[in-house]
Amino acid sequence: MKTLSQSMEGLNPTKLEYYEDVWKLQSKATLLFFFKGDDGRRALILDSTIFHPQGGGQPADTGFITIVDLNLKFTVQDVRSKDGIVFHYGFIEGAPEESESKFEVGKEVLLNVDESRRKLNSRLHSAGHLLDACMQHVGLAHMEPGKGYHFPDGPFVEYKGTVPQNELLRKQNELELEANALISKGGKVSYFYIFTLTEFLSLHIRYRRCHFFISGFCCCVAV
C-alpha cells in the first residue's frame, strides 16, 4: 500500500456531493487510493464523496463503502478532510488482510451514509443556529457566537460577552420560550455555497445571522 505522502501527490480535491444534495445518502465513486494511515487505520480516498467529514463542531458521517463488482464492505468509522482531500477511515469486514489487495485504484465503489446519524448531526447543528437566532430576539444580540459543539454527548455554543448575574435565569427562560416558539412556527433553514465577502455580507444582512462552517459553506436561519 502507498504511504500517505505518496497518496497525496497530484490528487485533485475531492468532489463534495453533499453540497449539491444534503440528503443524498447513496452514491457511486471511483477509488483513488487505499492505504494504512500513520495511526494504523485503513483509509480510502475517492474522487467524490457524500460522507461529511468532521468539522465546524459537527461529527463525521458514518456508514459503509462497497466495491461494486465484489462482495467487499468497508465500514466507515470516521471521515476527515485535509487540503481538500477527504479521508474515509475504517475497516474491511470479514478477512481484512486477504481483502486489501482487492481495493484497487480505479475500482467503482458504492457509498452508503448512515441516515439516522446524518439526521441527528443535522438537527444538532441546526439547533446551534436556532439558538443564535433566539439570542437576538431576547435582547442578547451583542453576544458574539464563538465555538460550536454539535456532538450528541452535550452540544453547546459559546458566546463572548456578559450578562448581568441577576438576569441570567430570566434570559435562560426567555431563550427556552423563544426556541419553542420558533420550532412550533416551523421556520426554514437555508444552505448556501458562497465565494466572496460581498455575498456573505448580503446573506448576513438578509438573514440577520449566518455562519461559515466548512470551506465557505453557509447556513442561515430565516426568522
Automatic annotation (TrEMBL):
Keywords: Ligase. InterPro entries: Ala-tRNA-synth_IIc_N, Alanyl-tRNA_Editing_Enzymes, Thr/Ala-tRNA-synth_IIc_edit, Transl_B-barrel_sf. It comes from the Eukaryota. GO terms for biological process: alanyl-tRNA aminoacylation. The keyword Ligase applies. GO terms for molecular function: alanine-tRNA ligase activity; ATP binding. Residues 42-116 form the Alanyl-tRNA synthetase class IIc N-terminal domain. Pfam families: tRNA-synt_2c. PANTHER family: ALANYL-TRNA EDITING PROTEIN (PTHR43462), THREONYL AND ALANYL TRNA SYNTHETASE SECOND ADDITIONAL DOMAIN-CONTAINING PROTEIN (PTHR43462:SF2). This is Alanine--tRNA ligase cytoplasmic.
